[in-house]
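Hi R.,

Here's the chain you asked about this morning:
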Amino acid sequence: MTTRPHLLYVAWAFPPCRAAGVYRALATANAFRAAGWRVTVLTTTREAYERYTGTDDSLEDLVDPEVDVHRVPFTWPAQETDVRTYSRLRVVLPPLWRRLRRWADMRDFPEAGYGPWRRDLVRAAREVHRTDPVDLVISTANPHVTFEAARALHREHGVPYVMDYRDAWVLDVFSGRRLHGPRSRQARTERGLVADAREVWFVNEPIRQWHAQEHPGAASRMHVVANGWDPGLTDAMAHAPASPEGPEPSTAGVRFGYLGTVTPKVPLSELLAGWRAAVSDGSVPAGSTLEIGGYLGYFAVPRPEMREAIAAAADVGASYAGPVRKAAVAEFYAHVDALVLALGAGRYVTSGKVFEYLSTGRPIVSVHDPGNAASQVLEGYPLWFPARSLAPEDVAAALAEAARAVVDDDDASRTAALEFAAAFRRDRQLTPRIAALRTAVAR
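And the predicted structure, written out as tokens:
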């Protein structure tokens, strides 16, 4: 190993991808580079993101210029919307085509949609190692097929690897039930991967505990690496009031904002029902607004039912801002007075957005199951206003408390909020693991 160890970082979502996992991937690659590592990233092409998930070109400006990015082509036939490319079988017998497509997806690796990427990904990893020997591989999921690049170099050359889970593979983080049985291909594949991993990372303690029970022999190698927030993203706006002249309830109202991908798990209808109740009964000041920013659904095409639901609440001040580029995130936060954190239910659910919200020092209204792992992160935040349930009256009550905090505009509370948030900077989550891995690789 040289004095500057070589990290191969494998991630499907990397700039300019706009998927939620891209922020963790971007921050990890940059953090290792800042710590003195040479970093090579294996990811997919810009064309794949443009076709399937959507892009945020501003993210590419944030990649350390010395990070070497290798792009591996990826196709996703099941998500193809251009009917001109469809085979005759797909047009005439769609159910049969779907069954055959799933079989083809799962043949090389047990993951629908992504399995066929395994061969090209492993081939690319071998080529990187051949031209510039790799000292450590970190593969981040999902998709979990990225782990195969790490396993290949470990088996063939003894290269140690880290498995970085954003969520889980065999565990449904929303319901808490198993997605795949103990004897399934997925579970058996995971057991083999975990057994050989140098470290396994999870985003919160509940998910780590579940996997420690599932893989007791690897429990000591499992670590929580929380998502955190990125220094510089919101620093400039966090220290200035959202409303320089102070909001006047009788005229300006209070500006609430939600920023994030609205997935089918997000309680959008419950949020809008609670908002309507708050406006209708005067729980929030007259003229208050709720602005929702981000993608509607996982893919590039917005889900129409979500757009329609927001539009139907326009009469009570709700609006949709559309996708927000990473470069414009601070601007979005700067023009709202309070933030709404709407998440799917589940004790294993944290979301990376909660950390970004903390960095603003703004009041945060939680519209999610109180048992979510996000509640553990927010516990003690002086400007946190959790809804007791998703019932409209409870959501309205939480919105009302946050509105009062905005109107009162307590400088001491804002200062305390920013001090609380400092502990969740992303670099503070990554630094201990980077140091430990540097020592392990050197040894």
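Confidence is low (pLDDT under 50) at residues 238-251.

Let me know if you need anything else.
M.
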